[in-house]
Amino acid sequence: MDTVLQLDGLTKTYGRRRGLAGLTLDVKQGEIFGYLGPNGAGKSTTIRILLDLIRPTGGTARVLGLDPRTDAVALHRRLGYLAGDFVVDGRQTVRECLAFLGALRGDGAGARIPALAERLDLDLTARIHSLSKGNRQKVGLVQAFMHAPELLILDEPTSGLDPLVQRTFLELVTEARDNGQTVFMSSHIMSEVQAVADRVGILREGRLVALDRVESLRERAVRTVTLTFDGPVDPAEFDLPGVTDLAVDGNVLTCRVAGSPDALVKAAARHTVTGLLSEEPDLEELFLTYYQPEGSGHVA
Ligand SMILES: Nc1ncnc2c1ncn2[C@@H]1O[C@H](COP(=O)(O)OP(=O)(O)OP(=O)(O)O)[C@@H](O)[C@H]1O
């Protein structure tokens, strides 16, 4: 499989401020990569380097096999980009703005505008300056997707979108992946990424602190389990590795389980189980542990 993004030891300092501290990361063709991190972690810095909007202090970045610093023109034709602060001329109508960008991109881009606008519920006749933040974001999404680029680089793409439009956005991303396109999207919200991403990287203070498939993260995350039995049970039987917050109230046992629930299920099976409820692992919680500032106890 082709490597679409190849970052090696990428570093960026802003004077004495650190933007990125030695980022090494590969993204493969046809994957949706969720780039997560709290505010100020360095997500936009990374994306701006990929687009050659800023230059790294050290390390290298290859995008679609090219160097963003020397091949920017060729690259921009092959990728779709949504900036965190998408800005266009406010006096035009949405249709004029998108038609202009579509003509620049060529490749049938203009023809895809009406369908994309309809799916995102974007009014093409409105003037850009009259749009709410969410509607401006939709304009940004249409211009990023309209030429079906090989690579989509999206900085906080769902910011300002209502839940219905967020869902449409996630469909667009999945369709792009099914079409062989690659998606690199940043976010600070796990839940919106876990629905679509194949892999996730978590950035904290300019460093990658986790990099894994969403499925693997899910397996490691903590879930809450409630078991109901046909009679009282002894809590000591359920004092198992990975089981915490164990509470038994008559016939009902609740606990939290990290990783595989196998040992718990086997212990429960020694009794007659009349009810079982297992809540989805809380990935948000797992992520928050990665978000703790350095020195606050968590070791990634
Ligand atoms: N132009 C700049 N001048 C000085 N410091 C900067 C500049 N741009 C970014 N930084 C600093 O670099 C660090 C990373 O910022 P960056 O914008 O890349 O983070 P982010 O993960 O995209 O966060 P956000 O979600 O808030 O945009 C922050 O400490 C920020 O203050």
Automatic annotation (TrEMBL):
Keywords: Antibiotic resistance, ATP-binding, Nucleotide-binding, Transport. It is found in: Cell membrane. It is a peripheral membrane protein. GO terms for cellular component: plasma membrane. The keyword ATP-binding applies. One of its GO terms (molecular function) is ATP binding. InterPro entries: AAA+_ATPase, ABC_transporter-like_ATP-bd, ABC_transporter-like_CS, ABC_transporter_ATP-binding, P-loop_NTPase. SUPFAM superfamilies: P-loop containing nucleoside triphosphate hydrolases. Residues 5-230 form the ABC transporter domain. It comes from the Bacteria. GO terms for biological process: response to antibiotic. Belongs to the ABC transporter superfamily. PANTHER family: ABC TRANSPORTER ATP-BINDING PROTEIN (PTHR42711), ABC TRANSPORTER ATP-BINDING PROTEIN NATA (PTHR42711:SF5). This is ABC-2 type transport system ATP-binding protein.
